[in-house]
Structures are given as C-alpha cells and as structure tokens.
Write a structure and sequence with these properties.
The complex is a heterodimer.
Chain A: H1 25-28, E1 36-45, E2 48-58, E3 63-67, H2 74-81, E4 91-99, E5 102-103, H3 111-117, E6 118-121, H4 133-143, H5 151-161, H6 165-168, H7 181-193, E7 199-203, H8 211-224, E8 229-233, H9 237-243, E9 246-252, E10 258-265, H10 266-271, H11 276-282
Parallel strand pairs in A: 3-8, 3-9, 6-7, 7-8
Antiparallel strand pairs in A: 1-2, 1-4, 4-5, 9-10
Helix pairs in contact in A: 4-7, 5-7, 7-8
Chain B: H1 10-13, H2 41-65, H3 71-93, H4 96-130, H5 136-141, H6 161-191, H7 196-207, H8 212-224, H9 233-257, H10 261-269, H11 274-285, H12 287-302, H13 306-309, H14 330-337, H15 343-370, H16 373-380, H17 390-395, H18 402-406
The chains are: A alpha/beta, B mainly alpha.
Bound molecules: adenosine-5'-diphosphate and magnesium ion (MG).
Chain lengths: ~290, ~400
C-alpha cells in the first residue's frame, strides 16, 4: 500500500490496537471523535456555483449546527464533508477538507475510506428494506468485509446508543421497514455508528418525524456527542439551540451562491449575533 | 332524483350513553355516479332497455329486412347500436353530460370484460378440446414413436413426454444463459452512469423488436448451415436467448429504477463500493420484481415456435440430451400435428397446447409465490410486509389479499 490511510485515532485515549498493514483496524478501533476543517470550499452543480468560499472548523466531540434558509447550500456543504457530493453527476468542488489534519480530497485518499470515518444520516429514514434490523446495524461492517468478533454485543451497543434497543430487542430479526419513522431514523443512526466513525453528519434528521421522535433523537445526539463529532443541518431554531455547541449560519443572497455569514458558539449566535442578518434569521424574521 | 336520507332510530338516541355516542349517518348516495361501478336502478334500467332494444333492432335488420348473417357481424352491430341507444336514452332521461359519461364508462367496462372473456375463452376452449381425449399416463410417459393414428385407440399408446422434456430443457438452458446476462445488462443500464448506456439501451430496445423467426434463422445460419453444430435443443436455447434477453433486460431495468436512490446513497455513505451497493442493497430490494420479470420472460419463451423449427427441429422420439440431436418441443408438436387431417393428431396437438398453458400457469403461480417468500417470513413474525411491487400485481393472476397480511 502506497496510500496513507486516514488517521483518525491520533487522539484516541484508549491503547491503540495492534496495527495491521492494511489499515483495516481503523474501522474497528475504539471510536475517537475527529475534527473537521473545511477551508475555502466552493461547490458547483454543472457550471452553477452554489457554495462560495466556506471556511469552517467543526470541533472535536462537539455538535455543530448548520442553519440557514432552504437552498443556501447546507446539504451541499455537508455532503462535501464526506465525499458524497461527487456522487451527483456534474458536481464539482474546490478547497480542502481536513479530517484531523489529513486532506480527505488529497491524492491517494479513497472516497470509501473517508465515508467510513465520516458517517451520514439522511433526511428521509432509509433503512435497507430487504435486511432485518440486525442486518441493518451490521450492514456497514459487511460492506467493508470486517469481521466483528462479538456481533450480538455490537448490535446491542449500537442500538442502545441510538436509543432503540429496548423497543426492538425482541425482534432483531424483523425487517427494518417494519419500524415507525422515528424508529427507522434511530436504526439509521445505529447503522452509521456501527462502523465507529469519528464524525457523524446529519442532514435534517428530524424533519420527517413527529415531535416525540424528534426529542428522542435529540437525546441520542447529546448522548453520542462525546465520542463522535456531530454536524447537523436543521431548520428548527429551538433544535439548534437545544443540541448544538456551535452554529454556522449559511445564506445565499438572491442569485448568488451560498456563504457562511457568521459562525460561533450557539449562545452567542442566538443571544448576541454580530451580523444583523443572523439576528433576523434566528429570530424568525426571514427564511 | 331523490336522495335517501338515513332514518335515525329513536331507540339509539335514548340509550344510556346517548350523550356521548353520536350515530354516524349512512353515507349519502351522490346523484350522478362517476365511477363505472356505481349504477343506480335508473342506470340499470336504461342499460337494460338499450341492450334489449338494440338487440331486437339488429335482429330485425339482420334477419327480417336484409338476409345478412354471421354471428360476429351481429354482435358488433348490436354493440355499436347498444352504445348509441345508451347515449340517446340517457340523454333523454337524465342529461347529455351524464350520457357521455355513461357511454365512456360502458366502453371502458366492455373492454375489460372483453379481455377477461377472451382469455377465459381461450383457456377453456383448449381445455375442452384437449381433456376428453387425454390418456394421462401415456401422455406424460410415452413419446410419439409408435403413433398409429388410424387405430381407434391410438392415444393410449403414445404421449408427448419427448416434447415436454425437450421444452423444459431448452427453456431451462436458455434461462441459465440469458437471465444472468439480462440482469447484468440491466444493472449496467441503471447503475452505471456513462456514455455507453444510451447506446446499449437503444440496441436492447431494437433487439426486442427482432421477429422470433429471425432469431431462429440467425442461429440456423451461423451454426447449423456451416455444420458447427447440428440440430439440437441447445441451438434452440440459443435462439430463445435472443428473444429472452431484451425483454427481461428492459423489465429488470424498470424494476431497478424504482429502487429509491436514498438506499444507494445510504449504502455509499457507509463506505460501500458501488458493486457492493448493487449486490447487497439494490438487487435484494428489487428482488421480488426481478424474480417476476425473469419468470414472465421465461413464460414468454416457453411458447415460442418459430425459433425452434430450424434449431431443435422436432422429434417423435425421446431425446434426453439437449446438446445433441434433434429434440422435440411442445410448440412444434402443436405446429405439426394440428395440420394433419386425422383426429388423433388433432387431439394430441390440443393436448400439447393444454400442457403448454398449464406450464405457463405454473410459472405465473411460482412467480407469485417466489416474490412473496420474504413477506411470508415477515408475516410469521407478526410484522407488516414491505410493500409489494406493482409490477407483480399487474401481471400475476393471484390477487394480493391485503387482509391476510394484516392479521
Ligand atoms: N443535485 C443537484 N443538481 C443541481 N443543483 C442542485 C442539486 N442539489 C442541490 N442543488 C442546488 O444547490 C443549491 C443548494 O442546495 P442545498 O445544498 O440542497 O441547499 P439546502 O440544503 O441549504 O436547502 C440549491 O440552489 C439547489 O437548487
Ligand atoms: Mg438540504
């Protein structure tokens, strides 16, 4: 192997397991939250520039919320953070994204590896309908052909973290599609956590859910935030205040690409924003 | 038209929990029905009147005034006049908008009835012509080697086992070769984004227009004329592959297209490579649709005749070896026997047709069962099934019982 695998366990407090030459251990190493630094990020769909010069640091073990009106490029930015942007035909980008100081777009970095380290939960719950609950949780491991030793323990641990264990422990063999929407979304969170990512990206994870499920997922976010860095897109200002430590306000002025207007600690962003547009948005004046 | 208003029984109002329970009213019957299924007594009367009067009018015109004859002409004239009468009478009794509506509804229902009736008629007719003369054991165990059509009990000593074996082997080999290629091509068309996709799709579409006789001649001319291969079941399989490929490819492609793209993204976001995503997520999700597409494709080639004539050639004698020598096939039995001026041959041809239809029916039922296995598993555990694909429901004779799944 000539490529350097992403090193995400630099800060791991636990003793590092013996490295094997393929770097496979990274997937199963005790999770260590990572820090993401995006610098000068631009994004295009075809020839249309939709994101302009975004520089943002998402701190280790913290929850960062991306807020802003629809269409200002939050999802695009989020998908750039784990190389899902390039899945869209015609999508292009510029700038660098560092995970613990390693440029994920550097030469020799493979998108697949990046995505194992930076997981993603989507707006619409999307458990694999042909797989059971247990198979869903283990799907990521199966895909990367990792042999988890204690599969049952792993399934229990992940479902517990996602706050779903008690509801499904008696029917792990049922199909994932048989759950309610909120349960499905928590199953998706468990599925993402099972590959032990250092960052979890969430794109409006609660917007398709009822208020009770929303609160349940917010609690899950707070529970996992210590071990994994969370970046969450949300349209719900209360939610941003409840779950996030830091906030970034995206805005696309008419016919212009989206940019970050202001970013900082959540209390400051909501309590004493520097930019009048931020104040307008968080107080519900527009967007 | 008067509307029946529900009468509330006084007993209900005076019951103990009268204050809390409000009896729901009976649903109102809307004055002009729009759906074809909603007929009031007036509608029925109008339809009956139109049907009867047009019948007698045509009868008079056909047999009293002119001396036309012919059942088909009679039926067509009756139907046309029936539609006209329906419109006129409804327009008179109710109004013109309703009349047009009623006529369109009648046409739509008639088309459905015609199709169902035609299918039933074909099936029952073949069964009627075949079953009385069947000798069940010899049919399935003997071949046509010792056929003495002149003898009175000819069918008790012959059968079409050689054709049944031939058809099954030829179709099985064709499916073994064709289905993997078709599914792979469909995956290429749907999951790969590239320049070749459009070209391949065009070629596949054009290929599905290949007349089946041309497929047979094609195999005949490249293999058999040049003695690369002799007449054999395998040559027939190759010709059948040419027909199977485009149809299965296009249907599987459609099935894969309806797999939500969110599932592919979820898989990629877990770090799965593209091939993994296709193999472990897309295909399993589309499984029941793919199985249905395959079985329908197979059902289609079971009855193909033209490609077999120059390839399998047909044989009166049992030949188990699909790779060597002329082999019988059910369509060939029908094709050659039905033209003989002998009742035993005719009977045998209809029996072959009956077996062929039963084979297709078995395939359809299999498709239905196969695509529901996973649902059954879910049902056993008390879960709701994942939604069935519309395609299977469209093509298959066994209806979906939703109530069964909800138990
Ligand atoms: N797949 C796509 N193809 C073309 N344009 C897109 C695509 N996805 C998003 N866009 C455009 O990019 C801009 C940013 O979109 P998005 O990142 O989804 O915004 P947000 O998530 O903040 O609502 C929008 O103007 C949108 O129309
Ligand atoms: Mg979005």
């Amino acid at each position: 192997m000539t490529t350097t695998p992403l090193r995400t366990d630099d800060m791991a407090p636990a003793p590092a397991p013996a490295r094997d030459p393929k770097g496979d251990h990274l997937r199963l190493a005790g999770s260590a939250a990572g820090e993401i630094e995006a610098e000068g990020v631009y994004a295009w769909f075809g020839s249309r520039l939709v994101l302009e010069n975004v520089t943002l640091t998402m701190e280790r073990s913290k929850v960062t919320a991306l807020i802003g009106p629809s269409g200002c490029g939050k999802s695009t930015f989020l998908r750039i953070l784990n190389r899902m942007h390039e899945v869209v035909p015609g999508a292009q980008l510029a700038g660098t994204v560092g995970l613990n100081g390693v440029d994920i777009y550097g030469s020799g970095q493979r998108a697949m590896d990046t995505r194992r380290h930076i997981g993603m939960v989507f707006q619409k719950p999307n458990p694999f309908p042909a797989m059971t609950i247990q198979e869903n949780v283990l799907a990521g491991l199966k895909f990367s052909r990792s042999q988890a030793k204690h599969r049952d323990d792993l399934v229990e641990e992940m479902l517990t973290k996602a706050g779903l264990w008690n509801e499904v422990k008696d029917r792990l063999g049922s199909l994932g599609g048989a759950l309610s929407g909120g349960q499905q979304q928590r199953l998706c969170i468990a599925r993402s956590l099972a590959v032990r990512p250092s960052v979890l990206l969430m794109d409006e994870p609660c917007s398709a859910l009822d208020p009770t499920s929303t609160l349940r997922i917010e609690k899950t976010i707070q529970d996992i935030a210590g071990e994994v860095t969370v970046v969450i897109v949300t349209h719900n200002m209360q939610q941003a205040q409840r779950v996030s430590d830091f906030c970034a306000f995206f805005l696309a002025e008419e016919n212009k690409p989206g940019r970050v207007v202001e970013a900082g600690p959540t209390e400051l962003m909501f309590g004493n924003p520097a930019d009048p547009r931020t104040a307008d948005y968080v107080n519900g004046q527009f967007g | 038209m008067s509307i029946d208003t529900p009468v509330r029984t006084p007993g209900a109002a005076s019951s103990a929990d009268a204050e809390t329970t409000v009896m729901p009213p009976a649903p109102r019957r809307l004055p002009s029905a729009i759906r074809p299924g909603d007929f009031s007594s007036t509608d029925v009367a109008l339809l009956a009147f139109s049907a009867l009067s047009s019948f007698f009018l045509v009868w008079v015109a056909f047999y009293q005034i002119t001396s036309l004859s012919g059942v088909l002409g009679f039926l067509v004239s009756w139907f046309v006049l029936f539609i006209a009468m329906t419109w006129i009478s409804t327009a008179q009794v109710i109004e013109r908008q309703v009349a047009t509506d009623r006529v369109v509804a009648t046409l739509v229902v008639s088309a459905a009835v015609l199709v169902v009736g035609l299918v039933l008629f074909i099936v029952l007719w073949v069964a009627y012509k075949a079953v009385p003369s069947i000798h069940w054991t010899s049919l399935f165990t003997k071949d046509q080697k010792n056929f003495q059509p002149a003898s009175p009990n000819a069918l008790s000593t012959v059968g079409i086992s050689e054709a049944i074996v031939g058809t099954m082997e030829q179709v099985a080999v064709a499916a073994l070769i064709g289905v993997p290629i078709a599914i792979t091509t469909a995956v290429f068309l749907n999951e790969v984004k590239g320049r070749g996709v459009k070209l391949v799709r065009t070629v596949v579409t054009a290929m599905s227009g290949t007349p089946s006789v041309v497929a047979g001649v094609f195999i005949y001319s490249i293999f058999i004329i040049d003695h690369i291969m002799n007449y054999s079941g395998f040559a027939a399989s190759l010709a059948l592959v040419v027909i199977l490929l485009p149809s299965v490819t296009r249907v599987v492609e459609e099935v894969l297209r309806v797999v939500p793209s969110g599932l592919r993204e979820a898989s990629l976001a877990l770090g799965a490579p593209e091939w993994r995503t296709t193999w472990s997520v897309v295909l399993p999700t589309a499984r029941s649709g793919v199985v249905t597409a395959v079985l329908l494709g197979v059902a289609r080639i079971v009855g193909e005749t033209a490609p077999l004539i120059f390839t399998a050639f047909g044989s009166q004698v049992m030949n188990w070896n699909v790779f060597h020598g002329a082999q019988g096939a059910l369509p060939i039995v029908i094709y050659s026997d039905v033209r003989q001026a002998n009742q035993s041959f005719l009977d045998l041809a209809f029996q072959a047709g009956f077996v062929l239809m039963s084979l297709v029916l078995v395939l359809f039922v299999l498709a239905r069962l196969f695509s529901r296995v996973r649902d059954k598993d879910a049902k056993k555990r008390g879960d709701l099934p994942i939604e069935d694909d519309a395609l299977a429901r469209m093509f298959l004779p066994v209806p979906m019982e939703k109530s069964e799944n909800l138990s």
